[in-house]
Amino acid sequence: MFHALADALRTVGSAVATVVTLPFRVVAKLFGGAGNATRRA
After folding, report:
1. Closest CA to 8 of 20, 18, 16
2. Which residues make Cβ contacts (< 8 Å) with residue 29, sequence separation at least 6?
3. Which secondary structure element, helix H or strand E, spans residue 2, and what is its range?
4. pLDDT at residue number 32
5. pTM value?
6. Residue 5, CB half-sphere, CA atoms under 13 Å: how many?
């Protein structure tokens, strides 16, 4: 029973981590793209 509970908590934790880091990844990608565009010009 405790093993199932630990697995559930681990799954929820990884899902929360993904949702929290996703906006930062998008912003980093946008700024990285903008940086590459300005360097090319």
Report:
1. 16
2. none
3. helix 2-40
4. 87
5. 0.56
6. 2
